[in-house]
Amino acid sequence: MPLYEYYCDACGNNFDKICKAGTIDKDIACPKCGKHENRRKLSVFSFGTRNSSGDLKLSPASKGNCASCSSSNCSSCG
Ligand SMILES: [Zn+2]
User: What is the rounded distance in angstroms from the CA atom of residue 53 to the CA atom of residue 78?
Assistant: First the structure.
């Protein structure tokens, strides 16, 4: 099952959630405030394309990107 990163619009909390296929974002409750106003973060190379709030300051460089394949968690071509 894929692991997604979520950002809570209600309290600003960031958290990871393992989601089954078919899970919709509205099913996800923030572990901090319990609200369902979360948005799923996109993959690293997609950051910035849907950033409307300006609050998400995530640097792809801090994710340890693999220079060869742009994966954030590459173990095959290092
Ligand atoms: Zn929250």
Answer: 35
- pTM comes to 0.50
- How far is the centre of ligand 1, averaged over its atoms, from the C-alpha of 59 (Å)? 22
Q: Mean pLDDT in runs of 10 for the chain (78 residues)?
A: 87 89 83 93 52 54 59 67
- CATH architecture group of domain 3-63: Single Sheet (2.20)
Residues lying with their CB under 5 A of ligand 1, a single-atom ion = 8, 10-11, 13, 30, 32-33
Please tell me the distance between residue 73's alpha carbon and the centre of ligand 1 in angstroms.
26
What's the confidence (pLDDT) of residue 67? 66
Q: How do the domains of the chain map onto residue ranges?
A: 3-63
